[in-house]
Amino acid sequence: MVSSDSSASGPDLTPQSPVRLRRSSTRSQSEFQWAPYLFLVPTVGLLFLFSLYPMGYGVWMSLQNVDVVRGTSRFIGLGNYLQLFQDAQFGLSVFNTAWYTLTVVPLIVAGSIAIAVFLRESRPARLLARVGFYIPFVLSPVVVATSWKWLLNEDLGVIDGFLKWAGMSTIPWLSADFYARASVVLASVWNLVGFYMLMVLAGLSQISQELYEAARIEGAAKWQQFWHITLPMLRPTILLVVILALVHATQAFETILLLTDGGPGGATRLVVQNMYQAAFGRLQPGYGVAQAVVLMPVILFVAWLQMRLFKQEGIL
Q1: What is the mean pLDDT of residues 244-263?
Q2: Could you tell me which CATH class the domain 106-269 is placed in?
Q3: Residue ranges per domain, the chain?
Q4: Could you tell me how far CA 81 lies from the centroid of its own chain?
Q5: Which of 77, 176, 204, 223 is 20 to 30 A off residue 93, Cα-Cα?
């Protein structure tokens, strides 16, 4: 005889009401909609803490006259920005940054393409040469600047020592405006070209050899193959090299600081070094940050141009 309580121990097959099911599904959908945003909280928090907050605080500091010694600050509005347009050193640093960028970037692009095309074949000697060209990029700025300072020193340098031995007049590499600028450009290109060479080599490896074989069959010369096949196929890579080289050029600081210290007479002082000198040399952090804020639209324009060009080339 089955007990009447056995039905209570079995599964509950009583159908739930539609209202109860609707509430349960609505609650689960609401929780699911909020889940992606909860996953974004750590990333957004770190972005705010290390990027947005420092940027906002920097803009606020640019409106202050900060006394580092006393630890006080006074609101002066646009005073730091008005001082920028009256500061001849800032204008000179902007000019120096412009000529440095317009000189270094084309040399890096042309040099990286030329070296990559020459070292394209995977022969042992050329593989070793690739390593040799890349090594300067992994060296610290202190090593790079010290090495070039040793080479270019007017009294004890290797290059001027050779010129003296050959009976020729020495060259003031680091004490004359023109030669100091040329020295800075030469050291920077030597330091960076190996990195971009590898990027161009990666782009060259994606070009099908069948295109070159077809061109040779048609009787195309080497320069015609380079002009009509290599360069067009390398357009996305060249664009990436140009953008990254622009970033490197506008951020150049350590090597130039250690090599010439912005001299002679500020001929090689770029905007980044001018900001550094204002904030830490003259103890005017508000004025130094104001220079960075003025350059922010330029950086944003370069970033916008990069995204637009990448979309046109199909990279993004």
Answers
A1: 89
A2: mainly alpha
A3: 106-269
A4: 26
A5: 77
